[in-house]
Amino acid sequence: MAAIETRTFKNGDGVALLLPEELGFVAGMAVTIERVGETLRVTPVKVKDPVEEKRKLDRLVAALRAIGPVGELGPREPVDIPDRPGLY
Q1: Quick check: is 43 in a domain?
Q2: Would residue 35 count as lying in a domain?
Q3: Average pLDDT in the 12-26 region?
């Protein structure tokens, strides 16, 4: 693909760049941007497998349930706060 020339523009407090459709990015696509010397590298974020993500969450929930409920909390020891004039 030949180089495409475009311009940046102000968008709120940031600067935006209009990417043509030919580059294969669709609106709302998650990307990472990194600077490599004078070059900006824009890479689509890899979509995680939702089935595997659910399995991980299920394992986490099972591990938390295996720990059991939190026991009774005891009284808290008083905290000695030193007098520091000028801070209040």
Answers
A1: yes
A2: yes
A3: 86
pTM > 0.85:
no
Q: What are 59's two structure tokens?
A: 């394992």
Is residue 88 pLDDT above 70, yes or no? no
Strand partners, 39: 36
- Rounded Cα–Cα distance for residues 44 and 32 (Å): 6
Domain hosting 51: range is: 26-67
Report the number of distinct structural domains present in the chain: 1
Domain membership flag for residue 74:
no
Averaged pLDDT, 48-67? 92
Helix (H) or strand (E) holding 55: helix 50-67
Tokens of 75: 């009284």
Tokens (6 digits) for 17:
């760049």
Could you give the 3-state DSSP secondary structure of residue 21? helix
Q: pLDDT at residue 31 above 70?
A: yes
Pairing of strands 31-36, 14-17: unpaired
